[in-house]
Amino acid sequence: MSDDLPSDLAATPLRSTRSGSFWVPGDVVDTDHGTNYRAPMFVAWEAPEVVTKPYPLVLVHGGGGQLTDWTATPDGRPGWMQRFVDAGFAVFAVDRPAHGRSWSHPDVVGESGAPFTAQAAKGLFAPGIPGHTQAVWGDAPGDPAFDQLVQGMGFLPKDLAESQRLDQARLASLLDRIGPAVLVTHSAGGPAGWLALDARPDLVRGVVAVEPMGPQFSTLFEGGDLVWGLSAAPLDYAPAVDDPAVLEERVGDFRLASHEGKPVVVVVGEASPFTAFEALVVDYLRAVGAEATLLNLADAGVHGNGHAPMLERNSDDAVVPIVDWIDALT
After folding, report:
1. Residue 192: left (phi > 0), alpha (psi -120 to 50), or beta?
2. What pLDDT is attached to residue 3?
3. Which of 34, 140, 194, 251 is deepest in the core (most CB within 10 A)?
4. What is the pTM of this model?
5. Which domains does the chain have, with CATH numbers?
6. How far apart are CA 20 and CA 93, in angstroms?
């Protein structure tokens, strides 16, 4: 075989790992079309030859994204999935239901939201905030890295609460299969982490929430209200809550038994728009019982990051304090 490899291959180090994939099946439903599976979840896994860390990681992408957010950067470098594997973890990355490979027809899974636009990508990810120096992409179609960034982004289901309920159910089934794990979530995947913890507290060792959706009780878009605090789907508060409106009125009166004493770190980039509210998310997590801390990457010496540090120029540096935090759990 020729040693003249395409540039993308030549720039990627040779590694020896195990890898595979499987499905968490969707619900079997009868429709006008016949019998269908509703909202499955695709899982890709990778592990080093020798797993040295006691808990696997479950990587949950953000809204409109897919598991490829974890596998490569827009400029072609290895992603955080590989970096976690190289650190000794077994890693399971998911396509959330109705995202990526976990497709499901709207007649089966429900109405789709609006398509993800280049303008939305620019608002979330493109340079523009003072100090945002680590983006490898420009701000419009035609820039090669911007094109790579946006190609993997699709629409969200229109019903955010139902989408999150499906995330919860499929992640719970995944945890039943693989055992205790640490959840690593990003952006609109953040509620999936709180909900999976609520469903399987004994199987979630801790949560790393990178730039999670918020702040609490916010209205994000039509049908996207975080009425249960940090999620649109119900969480199991104590005392029991029938009308979630009381949660915002009486913060501190309701706890989440699933979150009680659970280690959680909320990670934010130094120059991300999410820096404006992530401290409020941490405060709310503490109010419901979690042992929550805020990690601004700048405080760990990692500077210039925006909303997606796993995709930016210094991604290899940005993952280090997260690995250190997870290592401290064990």
Report:
1. alpha
2. 64
3. 194
4. 0.96
5. 18-329 (3.40.50.1820)
6. 11
